[in-house]
Amino acid sequence: MYYVILCFITSFTLTFVAIPSIINIAKVKRLMDEPGERRSHHVSIPTLGGIAIFAGVVFSIVLWTPFQVFGNLQYILCAYIIIFLIGAKDDIVPMPPVKKMAGQLFACAILVFKANIRITSFYGILNIETLPYWVSIVLSMFTILVIINSINLIDGINGLSASVGILISFTFGFWFLMTEQIVLAIIAFALIGALVAFLKYNVTPAKIFMGDTGSLLVGITCAILTLQFIEMHKSLSLEAYKVTAAPAVAIGVLFIALFDTLRVFILRILKGKSPLSPDRLHVHHIIVDSGLTHLQATFVLIIINLFVILICIKFQSLGNLFLLWVLLLIGLILNGVLYLINQRNLSKNILLTP
Questions:
Q1: Mean pLDDT value across residues 120-133
Q2: How far is CA 273 from CA 101, 142, 297, 338, in A?
Q3: Which end of the chain, N or C, is more open, meaning fewer C-beta atoms within 10 Å of its C-beta?
């Protein structure tokens, strides 16, 4: 507990102090996100908030992680550096998606092959227990990539990606703290500290965005916490904290990010477009277009995600398959609501068009 508290305070303080300087530098060098058709802002805003988040997270992790339990943390930090370089480059000079994906795959490979962060069991889903090594590698790489990019894709309105990152990190971080996984708890609370500090400058009117530098870092951290949360249950000795349906609960914790990613990819494919093509089909865009402010939309989505987490925890004893069906049902209901809201938005725009 002592190290976790100090880690949170250090990360918060460094990020909070660093952001004003980064804002000034970005304005001087014109490193700004300009308004556009898909943007939800109407003035130029600096995009390098992720640099401060990265500095706060890495500095506090290195400073407060006890040396005797440092373990494979060196490989996690190496993956962080790769993700930071990709994000910073893309924020300053946009990168082709292929090169961006190649860099993400490299970071994933470090986590899977060197840090051994991977899923090795299906926990009885589809009657599958232990996975073959090559299946474990492919599934783990794919899962990390999906989580990284799902967080990146929801970074579209003020406060959302940071708030989702805090919710995910706190949920997993608290569990790691209770199960005495000190390194993972430190990683989680270092990210929370940095994101809480960042929110001070990101709430409407936003003074800075986290950019890809920040959203990719949040994504890879959430991926690490998710896979370790699932995998730790194979050897957990503290029965009081064992989650019966760990994979399904983990999906519930990531619900909003995963739901939005899956939804927009399906819609784009149905429209004959590339899944990576930009548009305003994201759940946060639809809610904002309905008339809510950025902070109101963020609050609504966080409440929905929190509700899903509580449902998963409450009914975990019913098993993974049952919870997955429940999550699918919630997703379908939410998609139906979003469809109705979007249709109303389109009708309103037609009426307002001269």
A1: 85
A2: 19, 22, 27, 20
A3: C
SS (H, E, C) the chain: CHHHHHHHHHHHHHHHHHHHHHHHHHHHCCCEECCCCCCCCCCCEECCHHHHHHHHHHHHHHHHCCHHHCCCHHHHHHHHHHHHHHHHHHHHCCCCHHHHHHHHHHHHHHHHHHCCCCCCECCCHHHCCECCHHHHHHHHHHHHHHHHHHHHHCCCCCCHHHHHHHHHHHHHHHHHHHCCCHHHHHHHHHHHHHHHHHHHHHCCCCCCCCHHHHHHHHHHHHHHHHHHHHHHCCCCCCHHHCCCCHHHHHHHHCHHHHHHHHHHHHHHHHCCCCCCCCCCCCHHHHHHHCCCCHHHHHHHHHHHHHHHHHHHHHCHHHCHHHHHHHHHHHHHHHHHHHHHHHHHHHHHHHHHCC
Please write the tens of the pLDDT for every residue from 222-250: 999 999 999 988 777 777 788 889 999 99
Q: Where are the domains of the chain?
A: 44-349
**Residues composing the chain:** 354
Q: In which residue are the tokens 């474990």 written?
A: 136
Tell me the pLDDT tens digit for each residue of 302-354. Answer: 999 999 999 999 999 889 999 999 999 999 999 999 999 988 877 766 554 54
Whole-prediction pTM: 0.93
Phi/psi of residue 33, each to 5°? Answer: -95, 115
Q: What is d(CA 239, CA 109) in angstroms, rounded to the nearest whole number?
A: 32
Evaluate whether 163 touches 214 at the Cβ level (below 8 Å): no
Q: 60 with 190: CB under 8 angstroms?
A: yes
